[in-house]
């Protein structure tokens, strides 16, 4: 299944794209959208937490968790723990991010779960949670038998990549949805904010692509890559 190419260059590009994504989403929400707030009379500040946490948490930290086996020169057990913890952080931030979207809708009198983005978002966070719990029980504690772990590993990797790709697609759909709302409210379609949002979505997709490429590339020759 490996591409026959070293994973390290792909992981390096992914790191750079991840940093770029964090900078872009923060500039958008802090500079163009007015900042972040848990409680505010300006309810849009509450919503701004949503794209920040979803991108930084579920997409970027989640992606770093996926490529941790191929990018870190550490022992397998250490990388397994890093993989588990990063995914846990991503999941927690994702749950908080989704909660802020509901909070914004409820306090603004807007209906919940009416868009494709919201439907897919609930599906992604649910599948992500199931994947994490399964991985924790089978590969970490209490841990399955050696045969069960070996049989589960390909499916764990495949299902994890499926959920991650779905998360990236859902994020891109979210950027499109928010930008459409803003443009319908008067935002200049060819203005700097519109371009910033589109570039953020492109960087998100590219980051996801390099995560997938990293996973399907060869780990360093002296690396005992086997996340079980």
UniProtKB/TrEMBL annotation:
Residues covered by the Cytochrome b561 domain: 13-216
Q: Which InterPro entries match?
A: CYB561/CYBRD1-like, Cyt_b561/ferric_Rdtase_TM
The source's domain of life comes to: Eukaryota
Bilayer-crossing residues are 7-28, 48-69, 81-99, 119-141, 153-175, 195-215
Q: List the membrane topology term(s).
A: Multi-pass membrane protein
Look up keyword Transport and say if it applies. Answer: yes
This entry carries the following GO cellular component terms, namely: membrane
Task: Give its E.C. classification number.
Answer: 7.2.1.3
Necessary cofactors: heme b
Q: Name one Pfam family in it.
A: Cytochrom_B561
Q: Which UniProt keywords apply?
A: Electron transport, Heme, Iron, Membrane, Metal-binding, Transmembrane, Transmembrane helix, Transport
Broad class of where this protein is predominantly found: membrane
Q: Which reaction does it catalyse?
A: Fe(3+)(out) + L-ascorbate(in) = monodehydro-L-ascorbate radical(in) + Fe(2+)(out) + H(+)
PANTHER family annotated for this entry? CYTOCHROME B561-RELATED, TRANSMEMBRANE ASCORBATE FERRIREDUCTASE 1
This chain belongs to the protein called ascorbate ferrireductase (transmembrane)
């Amino acid at each position: 299944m490996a591409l026959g190419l070293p994973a390290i260059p792909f992981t390096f590009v992914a790191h750079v794209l991840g940093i770029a994504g964090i900078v872009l989403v923060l500039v958008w929400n802090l500079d163009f959208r007015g900042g972040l707030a848990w409680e505010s009379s300006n309810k849009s500040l509450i919503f701004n937490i949503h794209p920040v946490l979803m991108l930084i948490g579920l997409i970027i930290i989640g992606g770093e968790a996926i490529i941790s086996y191929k990018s870190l020169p550490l022992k397998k057990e250490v990388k397994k723990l890093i993989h588990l913890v990063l995914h846990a952080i991503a999941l927690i931030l994702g749950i908080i991010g989704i909660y802020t979207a509901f909070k914004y809708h409820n306090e603004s009198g807007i209906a919940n779960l009416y868009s494709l983005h919201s439907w897919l978002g609930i599906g992604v966070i649910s599948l992500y949670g199931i994947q994490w719990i399964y991985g924790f029980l089978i590969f970490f504690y209490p841990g399955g038998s050696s045969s069960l772990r070996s049989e589960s590993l390909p499916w764990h990797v495949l299902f994890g990549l499926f959920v991650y790709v779905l998360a990236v697609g859902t994020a891109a759909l979210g950027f499109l949805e928010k930008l459409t709302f803003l443009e319908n409210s008067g935002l200049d379609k060819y203005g700097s904010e519109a371009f910033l949002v589109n570039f953020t979505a492109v960087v998100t997709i590219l980051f996801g692509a390099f995560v997938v490429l990293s996973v399907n590339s060869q780990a360093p020759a002296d690396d005992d890559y086997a996340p079980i």
